[in-house]
């Protein structure tokens, strides 16, 4: 077994920055911003579609999304906004994608 790498002051500062990051996007804001189904939101957050429907419910049918769910939606929003700016090798290290998704032609109809 290899010995764990010690943390530098920079590493500790990065941990502190990440731990205090208020990264989050509500399901309603994500849904209003992107033409996406409840099923797609469920896939992004690793939740069931019925759970996601409860996030949009009212009264006794409402369920509050977790901080993890809000973070997943914020990260997906970031990827949707900035995907083409992320270097391929960095994205591959993050997500393990075997190939780059082609940028969409703004003049072509979306599918």
Strand content: under 5%
Shape: globular
Q: What's the mean pLDDT score? A: 89
How many helical elements? Answer: 6
Helix percent reads 40-55%
Number of strands: 0
Give short descriptive properties of this protein.
single chain; 111 residues; mainly alpha; 51% helix; globular
Molecular structure report:
The chain is mainly α and 111 residues long. The protein has a domain at 23-95. It contains six helices and no strands. It has helices spanning 9-19, 27-33, 38-45, 49-55, 67-82, 88-95. Helix 3 packs across helix 4. The mean pLDDT is 89.
Task: Spell out the blueprint of helices and strands.
Blueprint: H1 9-19, H2 27-33, H3 38-45, H4 49-55, H5 67-82, H6 88-95
Helix pairs in contact: 3-4
Brief description of this entry?
With 111 residues, the protein is an all-alpha fold. Helix content is 51%, strand content 0%.
